[in-house]
Amino acid sequence: MKKLITRRGVLVGAAASAAVSPTNLKSANANLPRTHEVRITQFKFEPDVVVVGVGEIIRWSNFDLAPHTATGNALGWNTGEIAKGMSKELVVTNDMETRYFCAFHPHMKGAIKIKL
Is the previous residue joined to 22 through a cis bond, with omega within 30 degrees of 0? Predict the structure, then answer.
């Protein structure tokens, strides 16, 4: 027996799919590590102190004309150059340096506070 596809049937199916999708996306996103945003603007890191947990991600986004870096004070980690309009990410570890600066503009300083 051939099944008849109607416009109403398609619309009902689409509505049902839309109702289910946010739940699936929400549970899938629950397993992803949290990302903390740090804006680089007017030669400053904003916020200048970011509070994070181990395994979470810090994303530095450059809104200045000049390139920048986020570099651990003892050079233990470095994002590399972050050009205008670009971003770089770093996964937080429990033994990482928590104070950082911009290698191109050493007066720019920031800190990471790791939650226990």
Answer: no
Longest alpha-carbon distance in the chain: 76
Mind listing the pLDDT tens digit for each residue in 67-78? 999 999 999 999
CATH topology of domain 35-115: Immunoglobulin-like (2.60.40)
Give the whole-angstrom CA distance, residue 8 versus residue 6: 5
Residues 19 and 15: their CA atoms lie apart, in Å, by 6
The whole-number pLDDT of residue 104 equals 98
What the block records as the tokens of 5 is 């596809």
pTM summary value: 0.75
